[in-house]
Amino acid sequence: MKFELPKLEYKYDSLEPVIDEQTMTIHHDKHHQAYTDKLNAALEKHPELKIKNAEEMLKNLNKIPEDIRTAVKNNGGGYVNHSFFWNILKKDVRLNGKIKNEIEKKFKSFDKFKEEFTSASIGLFGSGWCWLVINENRELEIITTANQDSPLSIGKIPVLVIDLWEHAYYLKYQNKRAEYISAFWDVVDWDKVNKNFVNAVK
Q1: Which of 23, 50, 96, 131 is the most buried (most CB within 10 A)?
Q2: Each residue of 13-52: pLDDT tens digit?
Q3: What class has domain 21-87?
Q4: What is the value of pTM for the model shown?
């Protein structure tokens, strides 16, 4: 199977002023493309592999040949993480649906959830991601992953994510990660997040 860079469902400037057009263009066309190309290059070494999709690959890294496992973990993770990230971004979508009820139940209030998610995001050392996931107990949980590690590889199902690599925000926010995280809440597509949650708990 050969993977292709997924097209964005919106224009590069659609998330202005939170995420600027230049950052979106470079992030998607250069960074995400690079992960896609390197993933394909790694998989070319083992044409016998029967892979349903990239997500299944990350769920079963132990079945990936050892000589390409690290490359698949890093580049497959980069491919899947970015694809997921693009799909939960949209302006002017209010928190709604079952995810709203579950967040308020688990974290007592949306403000408390936002505070905990923000704290975890700011506290992540180096590059990586902060996620809201469904864990093994079918409960919401906030986790961070380093580099391009995926929650799928540790048995968790992603619902919401923020990219905390510097290339995701540095052109606009420079070293002010906290400002980027604060602005991020204005471009969360809660309809998609709710759909992710509903599908995860079926």
Answers
A1: 131
A2: 999 999 999 999 999 999 999 999 999 999 999 988 888 7
A3: mainly alpha
A4: 0.96
